Amino acid sequence: MTNVVIVGGGPAGLSAGLFASKNGLDTTLFDTDGTWMHKAHLFNFLGVGSVGGSEFMATARQQVDDFGVDRHQGEKVTGVEAAGDGFAVTTEEGEYDADYVVLATGANRDLAESLGCEFDDDDTVSVGVSMETSVEGVYATGAMARAEEWQAVISAGDGAAAALNILSNEKGEHYHDFDVPDTAASVFGDLIDDEE
Fold it and tell me: Which Pfam families match (predicted)?
C-alpha cells in the first residue's frame, strides 16, 4: 500500500491526510500543533458560519482520525531525505518510510530546502497547481508555497490538491474525490460501524 507522510497538522496537512486516507492510501501525519489556527476565528471559510480556530482544529483532527489517518500528535519531524525509490522521514522518536511526502509546515521551509526543492524569487517553494515541488514525490502546501496568502481555506485546498495528485499518480489516471448522496451514506455508515 502507498505510504504518504504528511509533515504538519494545520488545515493543509489535515486536508491532505483526509483525502489520502479516505481514498485508501496508508497515511501518517505528524502534528506538533504549531498552527496559527489557534489565534484565528473563521468567518471566511466557505461552509463555516463562525468558529474559533482551536474548535475548528479539534473538529478537523477528529475527522482525519475517523478516516484512519495515523496521526502522531506532538512528534516532531527532524529530517526528510531521499531513500531508494522513496523517502526516509526522521522524527524525535524514530524513522518512517514514505513513497510521498507532503510538507505542510507553514512558513517554515527548512525541510524543503534540505531536500533540494527549488525556490522562487520570493523565497517560497516552487510548485505547480498540483503542489508538487521540483523533487518528484514531494509536495509543498499553504504558506510554504505562497508569500502572503495565508488563509486556512487556501491551505486546505492546497493539501487537497497534493493528495489528489498523489492519488492520480497511484491510479494512473486523473482521480476525483466526489461523493454523491448514496456513497456519502455508505461512507458515513462505515464510520459509525467502526466507532461501535
Answer: Pyr_redox_2
